[in-house]
Amino acid sequence: MKPLHFVLTGLILLLLAGLSLSDAPPGAAQGATQAATVAAAQAGTKEPTPEPIKDPLGQPPFFLAGYYKDWVGSAHADKDSEPFKHWDAEGSVPGDCARCHSSPGYIEFVNLDPAKPGQAIKNQPIGSVINCDACHNQAAAALKSVAFPSGAVVGDIGDATRCIVCHQGRASTVQVNAAIDKAGLGKDLDKVEAKLSFINVHYFAAAATLYGSAVHGGYEYEGKIYQGRNLHVDGYNTCIGCHDQHTLKVRVEACGSCHKDVKTEEDLVNIRMNGSLADFNGNGDVKEGIAAEIAGLKAILMQQMQAYASKVTGKAIAYDAASYPYFFYDINGNGKVDKDEAVAANGYKSFTARLLQAAYNYQVSQKDPGNFAHNPKYVIQLLFDSIDSLNQGLGGAGSGQAKIVRNPPAHFNAASEPFRHWDKEDLVPGSPSNCAKCHTASGLPTFLQNGVTIGVKPSNSLACTTCHDQMTPEFTVRQSEKVTFPSGAVLSFGRRQDANICLNCHQGRESTVSVNAAIAASGAKDDTVSPKLNFRNVHYFAAGASLFGGEAQGAYQYAGKKYSGRNLHKTPYQTCVDCHDTHTQQVKFGECTKCHENAKDPLDIRAKEDAVDYNRNGNTDEPIAAEIASFKDALLTQIYSYATKKSGLAIVYDPGTYPYWFIDKNSNGKADPDELKADNAYNKWTPNLLRAAYNYQYATKDPGSFTHNPSYILQVLYDSVESLGGKSAVARFIRPEVKASE
Fold first, then answer.
1. Does some domain include residue 425?
2. Is residue 188 part of a domain?
């Protein structure tokens, strides 16, 4: 006879392997019946008549008592709750509902193919809860992927795949659009249509929130970009990474390892990450928990829905989270659902397409109470866009929208072009282009460690771990003692300076060296058109290159000319993080006003000691940004004139459309919509035109050049104007004196 501990060990291993045991804990008494039902269905024989399941909370073997104790107190075991009692009067649980509201239904579903949308199962007996058999069986253990209501399929998250089967909601953008199209309202968003009824996402659709735009669980407005799957730090990226799989409770102690103020579950709503420091709800408080930001937006959306319903549909609307169908006619117009109004017969039936879209998103935000952790940015975007849409329906007369914010700051804006540019290809290139270095969360750490990057899938934004090599307790910054710029120059703010990490990305991608190399390869003389020449784009926000000026050679520096080196403000304002908030990237303008007392905005700044009238307009008090703007205007005028005279083809510039310089077909000096196309890119470059255009783009793409290094930027603009128009073109300007680095 084998020792008892060998027998118990074997039983535990079988259970962990996903096998349902005849003596397994709770609900195991019906395990054989459930298995027989599934087997009969697969064999094509007649399904047994569903019979009520008795005593789903049977006692477990002693060696599993701990798991039983955890489970029996959870919502999954609450046999007297609405999710498991709702169908008692009908005598069976409908197949569509049984998948998640009974263990037999769940087991039958996972024995099909959960990765295929629309899989149907049979009605199931009442009296069941979600017990051990549901998740601990061979089919559940083998789950790899699951289809969402939108048809999107996700997987590769291990055991947490079992959770997604149910916590995904029952509707999506697809179902809402289908209902609107069926009602014939695709183009008329503000027409009341009796065929429209409220579409309910269902409750606790946590996975739909977590995966965001990857599964389209919320209503996503056409033309808008939404946050994809939300990623926490490693180890906390799945349902069971954050929730105990038996009690279902949040692992609060684990949260507290990063979020120091979190001691209890009630503290979770106070969490606010540094990547979300925007005043989303417009109340002026960016320190409140992100849950409060969502609550504020929800309140504005409800106010907007009620204003829209009254003005556009003529029927007041109100909401009650606990009463189906949730939205009701507000008969007395008091803005809330009174007891006599919370009846099915009073359900709201005056929806327009626009109101349905917004109401659906309101419910999405309401029915996942953990959305502030699952994917707050996605929910904020849904609420913002719903408010914006209703405002359009009200003709711009809606309230509460002026101050609200849709997206977080730049490094964390998942809806921005820098992070969404490669979605179609599903790969951000690594070396040699090195796009992944600055446009993915993992790129910079990879580069700092290896000196190269690899191609990776697009990420939502940067992450805490992009810049921090230790999360707790110190949140230390990755060190980058010396940084190589595109020119080959190796520069640094100094040893152990955190701002060095900024220079790795904010340095541009071209330089005097690369422009000269392109010109040399073409073999063209200064004013000769060459088909071998193309525009060289410095890339945007090359602030580090501007700051180091002539040392970095980020702008095009003309031969025989001298240029100012690194610009030094007064101590302690000499690095990126001295002047910018490290997480929002906003200028610490309060620090600026300590010296520049009269400045109302960074663009107002003019150094007191700089009294040179560079543009010779008689005003030495105007901001230095205005002096630079005059030089830029003069350069663009020279570029347009030179292109027509020397290249024989008019040119036009648009700062927001790649590749920025286009053929001006009608020579009107404006970038018309039909001209802003890649196949209309300017193609008559001479070396002189290329140098000047490069510097114009450089000055445009560092909007902070007026403070990063105004002397340097004025010098390269001056020289560019002179190179195209000669001495007479700069006769009214003064070139700043060269300032050497200290």
1. no
2. no
CB-side neighbour CA atoms (13 Å) of 479: 5
User: How far, in Å, CA of 663 to CA of 634, rounded?
Assistant: 20
Please give the structure tokens belonging to residue 462.
Answer: 């940067």
Res 441 pLDDT > 80: yes
Two tokens, residue 216 = 């389209």
439 within 8 A of 244, measured Cβ to Cβ = no
Closest CA to 441 of 427, 429, 457: 457
Q: Which residues pair with 146 in a beta bridge?
A: 154
Q: What phi, psi does 320 have (nearest 5°)?
A: -135, 120
Report the C-alpha gap between 717 and 714 in whole angstroms: 5
Residue 449 lies inside a defined structural domain of this protein: no
Say what angle helices 376-393 and 290-308 make with each other, to 10 degrees.
20
* Residue 608 pLDDT > 90: no
Domain match, 257 and 401 both: yes
Domain boundary among 95, 114, 142: 142
Give the model confidence (pLDDT) of 34-77 as tens digits. 444 444 444 444 455 577 776 556 666 777 889 999 999 999 99
Candidates 251, 486, 461, 262; CA nearest to 376 is 461
Same domain, 404 and 542: no
Q: Which residues pair with 662 in a beta bridge?
A: 652, 681
DSSP state of 93: E
- 591 and 720 both lie in a single domain: yes
Ramachandran angles phi, psi of 719, nearest 5°: -65, -30
Q: Is residue 208 part of a domain?
A: no
Pair (592, 719) in one structural domain = yes
Taking only the tens place, the pLDDT of each residue in 637-651 is: 999 999 999 999 999
Domain count, the chain: 3
- Give the range of the structural domain holding residue 401, as residue numbers without chain letter: 223-230+252-412
Domain final position from 412, 438, 459 = 412
DSSP single-letter state for residue 412: G
- On whether the CB atoms of residues 235 and 241 are closer than 8 A, the answer is yes
The DSSP line for 440-455 is STTHHHHHHHHSS---
Identify whether 473 is preceded by a cis peptide bond (ω within 30 of 0).
yes
536 CB contacts (<8 Å, ≥6 apart)?
510, 514, 515, 518, 690, 694
CB-count exposure of residue 369 (10 Å: 0-12, 13-18, 19+) = middle
